[in-house]
Amino acid sequence: MTDLLTAALFPSMRPQYKNRQADGELPAAVEHLFPQGTMIDHYFVTLTPDFAAELAAVPGFARLGGRISAVAFCQQPDGAPWKVHFQEPTMVEDLCIDMPDSEFRALLAANQITLPGEG
Predict the structure, then answer these.
(1) In the predicted model, is pLDDT for residue 2 greater than 70?
(2) What CA–CA distances, in Å, run from 23 to 5, 20, 47, 59?
(3) How do residues 26-73 score in pLDDT, each as one tens digit?
(4) Does residue 16 surpass a pLDDT of 70?
(5) End-to-end CA distance of the chain
(6) How far apart are CA 51 and CA 39, in angstroms?
(7) Which residue from 1, 30, 53, 72 has the least number of CB within 10 angstroms?
(8) How remote is the C-alpha of 115 from its chain's centroid?
(9) 98 touches 104 (CB < 8 A)
(10) 29 strand-pairing partners
(11) How far, in Å, CA of 119 to CA of 113, rounded?
(12) 51-80: b or e for each residue (b if 16 or more CB lie within 10 Å)?
């Protein structure tokens, strides 16, 4: 497992607005930066079936007990890699891994998602 996440690890992503969570989906938030401030939008995301195996070698993954209950994608300034936070059900433990901006944009494109303010 690389220390950078790729779009391929997330087979689907769709807006939460007026949608119901489907089996296998996790709540996800996207913290998106604008010159005027930050916007948070809500989605559902799925992880590949072998996601846990991919993350097993990442330091800190064991603290999550193998269970991920939520994902937050946090944009960084100037095109720096996004910070992707994985949280376990109690929200006490958090694992943060970088995702290159190009990979996050590939995830959005694969799911026909345009972030608010970018379309």
Answers:
(1) no
(2) 23, 10, 12, 28
(3) 999 999 998 888 999 999 999 998 887 787 778 778 777 778 899 999
(4) yes
(5) 33
(6) 28
(7) 53
(8) 14
(9) no
(10) 42, 72
(11) 9
(12) beebbeebeebeebeeebebbbbbbeeeee
Report the DSSP beta bridge partners of residue 72: 29, 85
pLDDT, tens only, 77-119 = 998 999 999 988 887 778 899 999 999 999 999 999 998 877 7
DSSP secondary structure of the chain: --SB--GGG--EEEE-TT-PPPTT-EEEEEEEEETTEEEEEEEEEE--TTHHHHHTTSTTGGGGTT---EEEEE--GGGPPEEEEEE-TTS--EEEEEE-HHHHHHHHHHTT---TT--
Residue keyed to tokens 């079936």: 49
One-letter amino acid at 13 equals M
Count how many residues are written for the chain. 119
